[in-house]
Amino acid sequence: MVIILTKLSFKCSFIQILQKAINLYQEQLKLFCGYENTLEVWERKDEIPMNQTINNRSIVYKSAIALKLASVCQQPAIYIANELVKYCQEIVDTDIKKDTDFFEFEVISSGIIYFYLTDLSIANWLHYLTSFPLNFEQQKLRVGGSYKSLETTNLFPIQYSHARCCSLLRMGIRDRLINLTPTDADTSGQFLLFQISQPISWQEPNGQLQFSHNSEYQLIAQIASTLDSIYCVSSSKKPINWQKVADAMSVAFQNFYSDCRIWGEVKVKKPKLAQARLGLVLLTQSVLRFLLEERLGGEAPVEL
To answer: Is 203 helix (H, G, I), strand (E, B) or coil?
Structure first.
């Protein structure tokens, strides 16, 4: 089984790595448990628990899969977790190479497995997302009753955030802070989708991300979480509350916009930081547009 990681969803990538680690470890688990179908319940990747969190500006994913397996196999969760991480590291070193050299693994005493995203992995992810327009075509085909939010109420705050993103991008193009190529327009001719035409410097020379404010990392984490919801499809019958997802994106953006300047002194003294922040605006605009039009049944206005 060759691992092909999605470049859009960290959650899907980590679940895929864990699934292969479990498969590699399956014979040993069968030996522990004494019967062959120990892992039948974990055959589907959506059954592997995986949640995102933030720890000191680090974006982290954690999984309690070892605790689930421990309850079946009567083995200590921490032992199973360490074995799974060993296989995960082997997968990283052999199958995936540079794509996951930038993931770090940790097991804590309870048996929870942590997957840490390094600055380089985040920078590569941001570079990919801004270099190619986000492809939501397959997700559009899946839209049905179970995909629409059941609690859609007030879309104005989300629409306002989208319009603000469009305004900032137009200003960035006008001031030659960021080079964008329009790729899609609405019926009035206003551009709704942009593609970066010149790479953004996401990292400092020392390898650290350009960003230094908590709001920047909160926005990055929310973009990642939203893409997880869109691309990492679960078989659960419980529909996703897309209103809640979109509201969280909007709030994260508004906090970022309030706390992180782009023009003025930042533009003059730290133009690369200004460009990187506009890159986050570009991603936010693209995701909000999709949520508004394809999940909430609303419009994505370019100005209000």
So the answer is: strand
Long-range CB contact pairs, 36-42, < 8 A, 24+: 38/69, 38/72, 38/73, 39/69, 42/68, 42/69
Element (H, E) at 53: strand 51-55
For residue 58, give the 3-state DSSP assignment. Answer: strand
Note the pLDDT tens digit of each residue in 151-203: 557 899 999 999 999 999 999 989 988 887 766 544 444 555 666 767 899 99
Please give the single-letter amino acid code of residue 206.
N
Which residue type does 154 have? Answer: N
Beta-carbon count within 10 A of 75 CB: 17
Task: Quote the tokens at residue 93.
Answer: 């070193």
What pTM value is reported for the model?
0.87
DSSP state of 295: I
DSSP conformational letter for 240: P
Q: What distances in angstroms separate CA 94 from CA 90, 97, 231, 240, 259, one per listed residue?
A: 6, 6, 25, 36, 42
